[in-house]
Every structure is written in structure tokens, then in C-alpha cells.
Amino acid sequence: MSLLHDKHNRWYCIFIAVLVILLVLIGITVIDTQAVVTKEMFLTHDNAIATSLLEEGVSKEVIATALMNTEADATGNKVLAEIGLSNSTDIENLSYVSDVKNTIMTSMFVMLFLWTLFLILGTMLFLYWRERLYRKSENIIKDYIEGNYNVHLPQSNEGNIYQLLASVDQLATMLQAKNDTEQKTKEFLKNTISDISHQLKTPLSALMMYQEIIENEPDNPETVKEFSLKIGTALKRIEQLIQSMLKITRIDAGSIFFEKSNYSISNILNHAISELTTRANNEKKEIVIDGDLEQMLYCDIEWTSEAIGNIVKNALDHTDAGGKITISWERTPAMIRIYITDNGHGIDQGDIHHIFKRFYRSKNTSDSQGIGLGLPLAKVIVEEQGGILSVQSERLQGTTFTLSFLTES
């Protein structure tokens, strides 16, 4: 029975069973004792009859025959009725029978009183355990309601009540996780808004300054042209910032579904660097592709191209004219690794552990093109597809980013 799985219920049932056994044993003892007492009473009564008959001169043989006789007839009843003894005679007038009755009633009363007393005490103890459990659980649930999840409800593998408490405790754990998620979401939103505000402050201030300069010198075409170009650059920076923030926030929020399929790496690279080759040519830099162009990669082509493009942009930002960015790859039994290597400025060892942080800008760089979101976005994209993005670099010795993807199972 499921009720017996509860520790308290089990002990209470054992207690009742013990009481019943004690009641039976005590009843047997009372019956045996009462039988002995009754025998003594009847022997005493027979003794009195025998003594009286002997005093009247009745022979022993007749007395013995009378006392041992078990047959009754109407003559005997008539004699007993003449001396006032019949079925209608009050028991209280039969002293030996009255004594037997009183002894039995006293014994039964004492037995039932003790049994009832133990039953009441055991039941009160059981109810006390239950009440203490309920009170403790009530106080803990109140803590849950107030947002305190540092305590836990009493736990046990047995009993319906403990299964109920375990379910409530599980619900509290889920609520705690939900609250923690909400707090992290709020903190993330707060930090994101703060980051965007901070990042927009500089280009917006520049826009206001450029606008004032153009407004103050409307008749100077060179000035208007120069600062119009700067306004375009600032607006492009703002657009890039907002687009990057939207992408990374959507991924963090889990609203992006990666549609993965098999694509050739050459197709992925065409998506990733088609617009960057023009920039590389203009800056007298070279992008080299080295690998099996038919090699397939299981991924989301759009987002993976975004990640590769961001890494190549970072390489272009930190490579001087005449520099070279090489994209190569290799396949192992378990993984496909894409290497993006440049011979640029490299990364200082003090910065290498921070480059994937959002808006991080090294103190050692004079670059003003990046906004500090390209590499973090690339890392999130790769990791959300089950891959790993790592980096190796030394100052003035170039940098290699490695994108590792599991092969399709």
C-alpha cells in the first residue's frame, strides 16, 4: 500500500498493531487469571455446601455424588425456587457470582483504559509529528513566496506527503531558475543599453560637431565636402553598431534558428568575403584561399559567413598595406578546422584573453574602424552551432583564428 511508504504512517500502523497484540495478550492473561479466581470461588462455595451437609449428618458419599452431579431436572429447580434461587434472582444476591462479575469488569476496565490511553498518546504523537512537518513546510513555502530559495522542504523517498513536498520543492527550484534568468535578462538588457549609449555617444557627438561646422561655413565647398564625408562615415559606424547589436542580442535571446545543411567551403567563403576583396585591393592587401574547394561543411551558411567575414574584417583592420590574410582548412575524422591567418600586428598577451568581450578595445591599438563587436559576434555564432572559436597570436608576429566544427554524424 502506498500509505505505508510514508515513514510516519508506517510507524503509526506498527504502533496500532503492537497495541492490538498487547490487547489480545492482556485479554488472554485476564481470562486465565479470572478462570483461576472463578475456580477458587466455586471450590469455596462447594466447600461451604459440603461442610453444611456434613454438619447435618449427610454421608460423604451422598455429598460427593451431589457435588459431582451435572444433570439438572425440574425437582432441583423447584427446591432452588423455594429458597429464592432462580434465573430471575438478582446477581447481587448471589455473592460468589457477583464477585466473579466485579472481578471481570474491573479487569476489563483497567485493560481497556490502558489500551485507550496508549492509543490516544500514540495518536497524539503521530499528529504532533504531522503538525510539525506541516508547520515547517508552511514556513519554508512562505520563504519561497518571499523569494528566499536558500532552504529546502523536508526530503524523503517514501510517502505521498513527501512526494508532494518534493514536487513543491522542484517547483520552487524552477521558479528560482526563472527568477535568476529574469534577473540576468534584466542585467543583460541594462548592460546592453548602457553599452549602446556609450558607443553611440562618440559618433553622435561627432555628427553634431560636423553639422555645426558645415552650418557655420556653408560657402566653403571644401569644408562642406570634407565634413559631409565624415558624417557619412559616422552614420555608417552607427549603422554597423546597431546591426551588430541586433544580431548578437537576437542570438542571446534564442530567437535565431540556425538552418544547418551541407555547403562547400568555397561557397561559404564567397558569401563571407565577396565584399571584402574590394577593400583588400584598395588597401593593397591580399586575401589568399588555400584548400580543397569541394570540401563540405555542415552549418548555417548565412551566419557562418557572417562569422568568417567578421574575422577577416578584423584581420584587415590590423594588417598594414602589403599584408596577407590566408584562409585554409583541414578535415580530421571528427572535425573540420578553418584557419584565418594574417601577418599583421598580432595581439598583445595582455589582450588575447579579452578580445571576445563585447566592445573591448586594446589600449595598444590605434585602429579606429572597429566597434568591438565583430569577434564577440563571430564567437557566439560558432558556439551556437556547436563549434569552437580559438585564437593564437604574438605581438608583431601575426594572428591565427581557428574555427572548429564537428563533422556531420
TrEMBL record:
This protein's UniProt keywords: Kinase, Membrane, Phosphoprotein, Transferase, Transmembrane, Transmembrane helix, Two-component regulatory system
Compartment annotation: Membrane
Name this polypeptide is given: histidine kinase
Organism: Coprococcus intestinihominis
Record-linked SUPFAM superfamilies: ATPase domain of HSP90 chaperone/DNA topoisomerase II/histidine kinase, Homodimeric domain of signal transducing histidine kinase
Reactions listed under catalytic activity: ATP + protein L-histidine = ADP + protein N-phospho-L-histidine
Any one Gene Ontology molecular-function term assigned to this protein's record: kinase activity
Pfam families in the record: HATPase_c, HisKA
Highest taxon above the source species: Bacteria
Record domain Histidine kinase: where: 195-409
InterPro entries (alphabetical): BphY/WalK/GraS-like, HATPase_C_sf, HATPase_dom, His_kinase_dom, HisK_dim/P_dom, HisK_dim/P_sf, Sig_transdc_His_kin-like_C
E.C. no: 2.7.13.3
Broad class of the protein's primary localization: membrane
Transmembrane regions: 12-31, 104-129
